[in-house]
Structure formats: C-alpha cells, structure tokens
Write a structure and sequence with these properties.
With about 120 residues, the chain is mainly α. About 75% of the residues lie in helices and about 10% in strands.
Length: about 120
Amino acid sequence: MVLLMILVVSSSYSQYPIIKKIGKDSLILMTLKQGDDINKSFTQYQNKLDSLKDSVVAKRFLIDSLNVEFDKLDKKREEYKLRYEERLNMPMVKYQYHNDSWEFAQKMVLIGVIVLQFFTIKR
C-alpha cells in the first residue's frame, strides 16, 4: 500500500511542463502533444488576427468612401442653399404683361368664348 502511494505521488510530480533554471535563463520541458496544442492555438489566433486585420482594412475603405460621398453631398447642399438664399434676396421683377388688368382681360375673353360655345350648341 505504501509502495502504491509512493508511485502515485512520484507520478504526479513528473507532469509536464517542467521549468528549469540554468543561470539567468529558464528552460521549459513539455511533451510533444503540449507543443502541438500550443502551435495549433498560436496558428488559430494568428488566423483570427489576420482576418480581423482584413476586416478592419475593408471597413476603413468603406468609411473613407462614405466620407468622400458625404463631402460631395455637403458641397451640393451648400450650393443649393446659396441658390435658395440668392433667390430669396432677388427683387421681384414684374413683366409688362404681368399686371391685374391683363389677367382680368384674359379671363373675360375665356368666359366669352365659353358662353358663345354654350349658345351655339344645337339641340
């Protein structure tokens, strides 16, 4: 029984990784499976980092193109705003035929044409 306890205790001390100090340097001993697991993890993390970098580059490109589009729209907005303000400040120009008497005369002629057509309808 004591022999079995000694074997269990000694086997638990032989678990890897083991760290050894040699002078100011340290040496880590591990099994091949542990090394392969670390390499797989490193590769997976590297792939994730690469995909995130590509995603950031693509999103940066999208943001830059949207900024350019926003600047174009802002310039057009300013242009239309200036046109609108200029139109508001323009004096109203009345043309020769834009007075109330001319419009009244046009309406009377149209009413006369309608009345004439009404009386000339054959029953």
